[in-house]
Amino acid sequence: MGFDPFAEFRMSGHAAIVTGGAQNIGAAIARSLAGAGAKVMIADLNGEKATQTAAEIAAETGADCRGMGCDVTKADEIDAVVRATAQAFGGISTLVNNVGWGARHEDPAHISDEDLVASYRLNTISAYRMSMACLPHLLKADNPTIANSGSFSSAVPAYDILAYGTAKSALNQMMVSLAHLLARKVRVNSILIGTVLTPGYAEAGIDEAMQERMLHPDTLTGRPGRPEDVANAMLWLCSPASGWVSGQTINVHGGGSVVRLFGR
């Protein structure tokens, strides 16, 4: 056989958890990992949707893909997912902390303490708790990897989603610190994701007019992202192909922009 340039992108023998993987970007990530040969557990607040998406991915890829409900803000549910994944797959080598959400605030000058704490709990603390719960299994695995779905809103002014951007900024700092804490043991990286149009935008209060403006973003590529754009980068970060990469934030946002797309 000839040289296979994609050999190190294969994930055969790996077992992954993808949080928030029932739909949108998370589902694309789960499909990409499964398509590369990994066993995948989709953990999502919507357990029924997680199971449905997992069944679709399993049928499409032939991989062992499963789903279960998990509220990542609750330690006991995190522990249950980690325990079920390790039992089903014989271990855990890959964790994708993809779950995250942030509402748009009509008046960013009046965000409650509760809003800030809730965003931090969902977007930051959950990733730390999930990482620590998986750590005993990761330390036994080959190519152990933690990869995180960050946000470009953590790197530019984002007053319209201030609570979310602030929590994602904290995720960036926390995860680069974890990369150093776990040096030579577990690789830890994050992706700063730009504008990827999904149904989740409507749920965050971004109306059709705003989404229409986002179809022509001020980016170097001139288009919004697709879930597959993020999934492709995530596959690289999780696979042995990125074995010399840790403690990094990878920008996947079409070239980015310093101009907020929503406006007041």
Automatic annotation (TrEMBL):
One of its GO terms (molecular function) is oxidoreductase activity. Keywords: Oxidoreductase. Coiled coil: none annotated. Pfam families: adh_short_C2 (PF13561). PROSITE patterns: ADH_SHORT. SUPFAM superfamilies: NAD(P)-binding Rossmann-fold domains (SSF51735). Belongs to the short-chain dehydrogenases/reductases (SDR) family. This is 2-deoxy-D-gluconate 3-dehydrogenase. It comes from Alsobacter soli.
